[in-house]
Design brief:
28% of the residues lie in helices and 15% in strands. By secondary structure, the chain is α/β, with parallel strands linked by helices. It folds into three domains: 71 residues, Phosphatidylinositol 3-kinase Catalytic Subunit, Chain A, domain 1 (Ubiquitin-like (UB roll), Roll), CATH 3.10.20.90; 128 residues, Cathepsin B, Chain A (Alpha-Beta Complex), CATH 3.90.70.10; 53 residues, no CATH class. The strands form three sheets. Strands 2-1-4-3 form a four-stranded mixed β-sheet, covered by helices on one side. Strands 6-5-8 form a three-stranded antiparallel β-sheet, with no helix packed on it. It has a two-stranded parallel sheet with strand order 7-9. Strand 1 and strand 2 form a beta hairpin. 16% of the residues are buried. GO terms for molecular function: cysteine-type deubiquitinase activity; proteasome binding.
Length: 308
């Protein structure tokens, strides 16, 4: 039940648990709202006479008379904190960086570059990939492939040094000069939407020609000759067998079919390399491909989920 607490000129409503509460609990509640220490509290009410002991159950009091309690006593002085409390949402970007509070930095959209931004943000959180870029040497030259790689490296440095979004102007400019398809403009002059998978393929192809050396962490390129294949390269094997062609029809051209000469031809297998695993998802298909086995995995798996 609610009890009116009168303290000088102030009034408070205190929720009192008559069934399970004690005087000790009541005093603690009063301290919480008035800051008057328990040992200074003098409580008066028509519900009791004289001094109340702390272990007295409130259920033993006359509830009909416990509608108002008078409090006498002085409160503790509330001192202002010596050091002002500062909340992170009130800090500037530079103050947050100085305090060691870090948030993922973003990339400003420079004309429908979301396909690029999302891909690079995913790659940025692959430590081995970042290390390979970090150890790449050289500044801007007349070589577009080199400039592409070095500007990507420098952009990652900028992201690490900021908590706000940065405009990737140099990298986008280099990208559009190296791959003109990403510089296509619409009828109104704005840059057109592009495909992130096409961007990733262009990115991997260029970096594979530039990142030729092992890194501090990846000390060996294994059977590959570049860091892209070493980090993302997959080797897949597809097996199949030919069957004898017994179909003869004037309506179907069977001349292009590869037919077996006997019923017992051996199984044929072929291997191919890839930098990403493509999963085509439809209402009828929820697997990669029958007869395909991944014979070499990679430290980092790039997956493309297609749903059309």
């Amino acid at each position: 039940m609610k009890v009116a607490l009168k303290w000088g000129k102030q009034s408070f409503d205190v929720d009192v648990d008559l069934e399970h509460g004690t005087v000790e609990l009541l005093r603690a509640q009063i301290y919480a709202v008035t800051n008057v220490p328990v040992d200074r509290q003098k409580l008066m009410s028509k519900a009791w006479k004289g001094m109340l002991k702390d272990d007295v159950a409130l259920s033993s009091l006359d509830a009909s008379k416990l509608t108002q309690i008078m409090l006498m006593g002085s409160a503790d002085e509330v001192k202002a904190p010596e050091v002002k409390t500062v909340f992170t949402e009130d800090l500037s970007s530079s103050d947050l960086a100085s305090a060691g509070v870090t948030y993922p930095a973003g990339l400003t959209n420079l004309g429908n570059t979301c396909y690029m931004n999302s891909t690079l943000q995913c790659l940025r959180y692959a430590p081995e990939f970042r290390e390979a870029l970090k150890e790449y040497k050289g500044g801007m030259t007349s070589d577009l492939a080199h400039n592409f790689t070095s500007s990507l490296r420098d952009m990652f440095y900028q992201l690490d040094a900021n908590i706000d979004s940065i405009p990737p102007i140099l990298f986008v400019d280099t990208l559009r000069r190296a791959f003109p398809q990403f510089a296509q403009q619409g009828p109104r002059g704005g840059y057109m939407q592009q495909d992130s998978d096409e961007f990733l393929s262009s990115l991997f192809g260029t970096l594979a020609r530039q990142l030729k050396q092992p890194t501090t962490t990846i000390k060996s390129l294994d059977t590959t000759d570049n860091m892209v294949d070493a980090l993302f390269g997959l080797e897949m094997e597809e097996t199949y067998h030919r069957v004898r062609c017994i179909l003869q029809s004037t309506y179907i051209d069977v001349s292009s079919l590869q037919c077996a000469e006997t019923d017992n031809e051996p199984v044929i297998s072929k291997k191919e390399k890839a930098l990403k695993l493509v999963c085509n998802i439809t209402k009828d298909t929820n697997h990669i491909s029958e007869g395909i086995t991944i014979v070499r995995t990679s430290p980092l798996l790039s997956m493309l989920w297609s749903k059309f």
